[in-house]
Amino acid sequence: MAGIDDANLAFVGAFIRLEGGQSLAIDRYLMPDIVITEFMDEAAGDRLRAIHDTHYDPALVDAPEDLLNLAADARVLVVRNRTQVRGALLDGASKLSCVGRLGVGLDNIDVSACKARDIEVIPATGANDLSVAEYVITSAMALLRTSYVGTASVVAGDWPRQAMVGRELAGKIMGLIGFGAIAREVAGRALMMGMEVVAYDPHVPSTDPVWQHARNVSLDGVAALADVISLHVPLTEGTRHMVDVKFLTAMKDDAIIINAARGGVVDDAALAYALSENMIGGAALDVFEVEPLTAEAGAKFAGLNNLIATPHIAGVTVESNSRVSGLIADKVLAHLEKAAS
Question: 129-309 — its CATH code?
Fold first, then answer.
């Protein structure tokens, strides 16, 4: 290890473990200040490494014992949505003072337990709003138009022109469940595309000026009125299975629904049945009740040609990853600088 200075020992130790393919015994001397458990923009990670001992391993989320060992002396954890920051991980991280979340949802973090331990939780608020909004509009257009899934038939010489006649977005009603920052980005784009917008959000006062851009309706109103429904709520006991058999039955029979919010807000089994029976026009799911989605859990969706399924990627683009990672790097560095002063 000649030529490696002390400041880089934590990172080099991690590199040796990964390249060697075997778990390296972690010496206390090698314990990093910052542990990054899931993928992060390289430039943002380099900025952290330049100042603090940093362990970056995007596969660490799937190596719980290594994570527990590395977190023991860490002052900062940087995670996405899969790392569960709770229970044994928090109990063993006695020096932890900050959790940086590469995204906005906090359902994988025990925020109350962090608060009780005086651990600051920092989400990347606003940094991926644009990516999610574009995903919603793109999914809506693809599901309404239908022709984008016919490549195999066309190149096989079937020329299924009549079967691929779809519908336009303009003139349709966009229904938003939740009317926070991302939903408002969706609303703006929907209006520009010639749609009408209705929304349900009991947490936004009826006097809020934002309702100039959308009609304030009930949850039942969204189901009954909307041609496209997009979900923008966190997963709580109040929102779990908000979209259930009753809601799906109340939707228009050609309406589509998009969930890029949180798995569990939609009853996946009920939705799979509704799609298989053509009770609704289609769905786009970026999140699921079981994540990562297993073959067993995904079997209910097999063979559905009115479903777009993606792996919790709506908020992740090259550009948004750079913004999210840069924002969290800035805030983590500021947190550690403040703690040192």
Answer: 3.40.50.720
